[in-house]
Structures are given as structure tokens and as C-alpha cells.
Amino acid sequence: MAAAAETHVYDANLHSGADLQAFFEGDNLVTATRFFRNRAMYLDLEQVLIPMLMQGPARASRRLRVWSAGCSDGREAYSLAMSTHRGLSRNNGSGWDWQVRGSDLSRPQIAKARAGVYVVTEHDQDAVDDYGEYFESAGNKGLQVAERIRAHIQFEVEDIIAYQPGEPVDILVCSLVVLYYEQEYQKEIIRKLISRVRPGGFFHVTPVSKRWLLSEDHHRTAGSSGAFFQRSSQAGGQDGGFSRNG
């Protein structure tokens, strides 16, 4: 299977010891990611989702959990963390307990994510300028994500569809990953991913049919750009969460 220029390539039949396992865990994949790839999505998170969660499902616990599933070299997860911090800061949420989790099957990509050091590309520059307070100089290496953001992120080597019971998440982002699974497995994978979102929480999974999501009783997020859906409050089960596999 050829590597994709846009994101990771996965095989739904991949298992430990399979011929392709070393390929996916190695540094063979061509990846293209950047900070704040979908700017409208991150503005939704800051301006719509965070206030809704603070006034609703997360109000009692004052806890927020965010998952970047298939996070590549970490820029998506860090973007989620910066937006979460900004959203909380602008809504008097300084005392909240929040955490972002990034998971990916590629060990080299996770190693890069944990280091948090990036050479800023032309595509990243505008976003870096807008969120400059969250970066520190790394000399000739470029920029490093500030420790106050890195302290709220954990990165794990993990197959995104591996079932792990634990604390459910409030926000899930899985961009252009499910696309590379065999089509016959995609809806099952998406259901499994969404099952890790607490009822009333939010998710962005692409590509997926919005009509199908509505038929599953999930809802478009009011007041947003349409990037996020809200998981049905009637959905059963609270599967998955923040576990350590790598």
C-alpha cells in the first residue's frame, strides 16, 4: 500500500506481528500536517465548544479531556491544546483540570511530538504568529512549544481503534485518518471512535457522511462552522479514554 501525502496510511487488518507492522511503526510514511490546519475548527473549539462544556457536561467536575487520534508529529494535538488553553483563559477557567492526548501508530512521529520542536513552514507561519505566546525559541532548530502547554499533553503510540476502557473524552479530533482504512470497516471504526466521547461531548471525524451521523442521532453543533458534531446525550456506554500503551 502506498504512503499518502496528506496523512497516515493504515490497514484495518493490521495486527501485532503482521508484515506491515514494522512499516507503520518505522519512519517510512510521508506525512503532511501543520499547526491549525482547519482554522474554523479551532475557533469553534475556543469560542463555542469550551464555553458549552464549561456550562454543561464538564461544569461539575471542572475537567476537560481532548483526544487527537492519529496525531502525526503532534502539531494537531498542540493546536488543540493551545485552543483549549485560550478558550479556558477567556472564560475564567484558569482553575480547570485539562489534558490533551495525542496518539499515533508511528513511533518516530510520536518521538517528534514528545520533543515538541518544529521548523516553522510557510503554511505554519500565520498560525504561529497568531499563537506566538505558546512558542519559545529553539535556536537553529526553530521553535519549541512552551512548557506550559506541553505539561498538559501526553503522547502515546497506539492503534486508534484499539479498545481501552477508561475516562471518556470531551472532544475528539480525527482528521483524514479513517479514510485509509478499508471502506467496509470505516463505519465500525467511526462508531468505535465516537464511543470514546462522553454523551454530550463533541467530535470532528473526517471523512464521514454528515447524513449518516445525523441518522445515528448525533447533532450538528449550534453556533459553529459545522466542523464539530455533538454526541447524542442518549448514547449508551462510555468506552475508552486515556490509557498508556506505548
Gist?
Helices cover 31% and strands 20% of the residues. The chain has 246 residues and is α/β, with parallel strands linked by helices. 39% of the residues are buried.
Provide structural commentary.
This protein is α/β, with parallel strands linked by helices. 31% of the residues lie in helices and 20% in strands.
Q: Notable features of this structure?
A:
7-stranded mixed beta sheet, 246 residues, 3-stranded antiparallel beta sheet, alpha/beta, Rossmann fold
How many DSSP H or I helices? 8
Radius of gyration: 17 Å
What series of H and E elements makes up the topology?
Answer: HHEHEHEHEEHEEHEHEE
CATH superfamily: Vaccinia Virus protein VP39
Strand-residue proportion: 15-25%
Poorly predicted spans: 1-24, 26-30, 236-246
Determine and state the CATH class: Alpha Beta
Structural class: alpha/beta
For the sheet with most strands, the description reads:
7 strands, mixed
Q: Between the first and last Cα atoms, what is the distance in angstroms?
A: 25 Å
- Helix share, percent: 25-40%
**If you consult CATH, what is the topology?**
Rossmann fold
Write the topology of this structure.
Elements: H1 21-25, H2 39-55, E1 63-69, H3 75-89, E2 97-104, H4 107-115, E3 117-118, H5 122-130, E4 135-137, E5 143-145, H6 147-150, E6 153-157, E7 169-175, H7 183-194, E8 197-206, H8 210-215, E9 219-220, E10 229-230
Parallel strand pairs: 1-2, 1-7, 2-6, 7-8
Antiparallel strand pairs: 3-5, 4-5, 8-10, 9-10
Helix pairs in contact: 2-3
